[in-house]
Design goal:
With 159 residues, the protein is an alpha+beta fold. The protein has a single domain (3-157), classed as Roll (Pnp Oxidase, Chain A), CATH 2.30.110. Helices cover 36% and strands 28% of the residues. The chain is built from five helices and six strands, in the order αβββαββαααβ. It has a six-stranded antiparallel barrel with strand order 1-2-3-6-5-4. A hairpin with a 2-residue loop joins strand 4 and strand 5. It starts with 11 loop residues before the first helix and ends with a strand.
């Protein structure tokens, strides 16, 4: 599978549904999302205007404070492109804001993150793989392909 087989980014009503969690953070209800999601504050790569997206946390490394995320819609995702253009951003996890630096992982590390995620969240990994255009078969080979094709990003705290 290659990137062109990925599901298209949401539009219309589905886009509204994907963006609804942003309002929870604005209403100071980010804690409802728990530690599995974060609010990403980033800048538009062309406009320079502030933008926001809620993304799932693939993994949190408590020792380093780093958060790992993945662009489920691949490199065409607007927030991903903005993040690569302006990698120093702020994230909000629950009610806490953290200044971070974003760095894309190499495909080998992306595979490792996806395999680890699938072990910890087997049902969610299977559903997400299917939603993103990969077979929803729960096979290791499928998760390895997801890890190679989709961009995984480490958000490291800026000290």
């Amino acid at each position: 599978m290659t990137g062109e087989n990925l599901r298209k980014t949401p539009t219309g009503l589905s886009r509204w549904a994907f963006r609804f969690p942003i309002h929870l953070y604005h209403w100071r209800l980010g804690w409802v999302m728990g530690g599995r999601f974060l609010l990403l504050h980033h800048l538009g790569r062309k406009s320079g205007k502030p933008r926001e997206a809620v993304v799932e946390v693939v993994r949190h490394d408590a020792e380093t404070g780093s958060y790992y995320i993945c662009s489920g819609f691949g490199e065409k995702s607007q927030w991903y492109q903005n993040l690569m253009a302006h990698p120093d951003v702020t994230i909000q996890v629950r009610t806490r804001e953290i200044q971070v630096h974003a760095q894309r992982l190499n495909p080998t590390d992306g595979v490792a993150e996806m395999l680890d995620y699938a072990k910890r969240h087997p049902s969610a990994a299977k559903k997400l793989a299917g939603f993103m255009g990969f077979p929803a078969d729960g096979r290791t080979a499928t998760y390895e392909e997801v890890g190679r094709v989709l961009p995984f990003i480490r958000l490291s705290p800026i000290k």
